[in-house]
Amino acid sequence: MKEAEIIVDENLPVTRIIREFDAPPEKVFRAHVDPDLFVRWNWPEGCSVRFDQFDCRTGGAYRIAMSGAGIEGTVHGSFHDVIADELIVQTFTPDAGPDLVILEKHRFEDLGDGRTRLTATSLVESFEHRDAFLDAGLVEGYERLDQLLEELA
Amino acid sequence: MKEAEIIVDENLPVTRIIREFDAPPEKVFRAHVDPDLFVRWNWPEGCSVRFDQFDCRTGGAYRIAMSGAGIEGTVHGSFHDVIADELIVQTFTPDAGPDLVILEKHRFEDLGDGRTRLTATSLVESFEHRDAFLDAGLVEGYERLDQLLEELA
């Protein structure tokens, strides 16, 4: 099993997760921006997801409802920058906690030989928010993403 | 002349500017979301501004070109949350420095007697970015906003 490196910055309210995938950046990026693929790995098993909006381009936005697996509620955010196969910068807020606004950067780095390093950085405005949000779920999701990438043409 | 309080956090890459206005929240908010008003106070005198996009609602985005007064270039961002007369949460990036992403919150607080306290919070992912961006321009803009608010019906 691949290891995800999780870096919790001591001096900044930032979490950084670094993970490598045995697939080229085009595929890993596609699994983030295509809702039909995104839904297959980014949520817990047994969680039902409804995309009320998912316009993954620079200046677009999203609103997603989740139900099941102990999760119930909606989240929303904006896509600040989307650069194909390279970068997604977006905001994220759970509607149950509207004061929590997370600024996320997903950077896709081509390692050659059909491999990709993904660096996911989350910035919030307090250490309390950062520590409350630190989420093992994303790392589990990356294991499902490994499987999905094997199936993708 | 009104004083703006500028708070540079020692422990977080955050700047907070607090300023009071002799106008109710509805007017101060309108001066932020109506491009015809926004253009009259938020830029230096002599700077020409073109709104290529300015869709100031939750999930909207903007792209603005500026020219003159020593400024030349475009900026863009997304409106993560826009709550009438209360709150604007948005991102901001100068296209000349695409790695700089600023998360801004503008909170409009009703002080009664037709007065408003505006708290503008800027969060970035490093202290270097924060200190480079610390901008007296916004405070000057607020003096022009005072004048504009007097003229608004």
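DSSP finds four helices and eight strands in chain B.
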